[in-house]
Amino acid sequence: MDASLFGRFRTATDYVRDWSTWRDLPETRRAFLRWVEGADDLDIEERYAALRGDGIRRRWGQLLLTVSLERGHRSYDLRHEDDADRSTDELTTHDDPLDARHLATEDDDGRYRPLKTAPTLRTGWVFPDLSGEEVVEAIDYFYPATVANWHREREGALDVTHWRETAERQTGIYDVVDELSGEQVEWLAQSCCVDSQCLKRRMWDEEEGAELDVPRGEGAFPCREPCSLVVAAARKWTTLEREEAREYTFTLTPSEKEQVEDLVDAVADGRVGEIREADVYEGANRYRARYLRAKRFDDEGNLSGVPTDDEEAD
Questions:
Q1: What are the two backbone dihedrals, phi and then psi, of residue 78, each rounded to the nearest 5 degrees?
Q2: Which residue among 3, 200, 260, 262 is least packed, with the fewest CB closer than 10 Å?
Q3: Contact indicator for 118, 196 with CB cutoff of 8 Å
Q4: What whole-number distance in Å separates Cα of residue 259 and Cα of residue 30?
Q5: Sign of the dihedral through C-alpha 88, 93, 95, 101
Q6: pLDDT tens over the chain, length 314 residues
Q7: What number of other Cβ atoms are within 10 A of residue 104's Cβ?
């Protein structure tokens, strides 16, 4: 068989393989798996050449998916994006999608991850050979409902529940969260719903027609309503906002004032662990913080000896 005839035969075979691959899959999974390999952007010859070569890669949050053709069937390699260049032998291998639920529980330091879509997914593992059905199942354990909501958004069918509606339906200890003002809801979204804290792209606002002036994020999958972590944080912010502001007078040097600001920034941005012990030019350096405490805190832990409440001063 000459090369031209072989090429036409293989293309015809690829069309048949493509049709048989997608025909029995549920709509959401079919749409997602076709998106993974760029089926709407690449023609079939280009796509199958890539699948037979190094495969086609897509990122989903911190996950890296690589689809390739192995023995005539699609094989999906799923791993953390930070492990993109590591060989399978260097990683812990898994073949049961259910294992993803356990891998998603703790971060690299063994700390519990209350928010599955936080950018803290642990590294060092790989699912080297999953089927299409299995890879979607594993992703659903890592990032629950993200594929379904992504598909609803593509179909123009994403139902969004905004903050006011979410707050008004809270009961029990969370009943208070509807007290937050519009400005305070802005601060709430700024603290919890940005890319550094969550990989979802926020689609909810204070209410329909009242958009929050906070970046929605760059995530591939949408967030259709305030999550339980946001509601829990809102309860705390609500109780804090009930306090009346007071005026305190502290004595600080200009550098010490800037250091306090650096400390707040470092904690808020999660950078404290990145600051080296020898880098005493950083305001949030541990030794600088200890120096400030030794100099400006009294024996009761009051900044500049100023008590928090009048009763403490008596």
A1: -125, 130
A2: 3
A3: no
A4: 53
A5: negative
A6: 566 666 666 666 776 677 777 878 899 999 999 999 998 888 888 999 999 999 999 999 999 999 999 888 899 999 999 999 999 999 999 999 999 999 999 999 999 999 999 999 999 999 999 999 999 999 999 999 999 999 999 999 999 999 999 999 999 999 999 999 999 999 999 999 999 999 999 999 999 999 999 999 999 999 999 999 999 999 999 999 999 999 999 999 999 999 999 999 999 998 998 999 999 999 999 999 999 999 999 999 999 889 988 765 55
A7: 19
Closest CA to 132 of 35, 277, 261: 35
Report how far apart, in Å, the C-alpha atoms of 222 and of each of 136, 144, 151, 154, 158 are: 17, 12, 10, 10, 9
- Confidence (pTM): 0.85
- Own/partner pairs, 200-203, CB within 8 angstroms, 24+ separation: 200/117, 200/146, 203/153, 203/158, 203/160
User: In which residue are the tokens 């999608």 written?
Assistant: 97
The amino acid occupying position 75 is: S
Q: How far apart are CA 124 and CA 164, in angstroms?
A: 41
The first and second tokens of residue 41, run together, are 């952007």
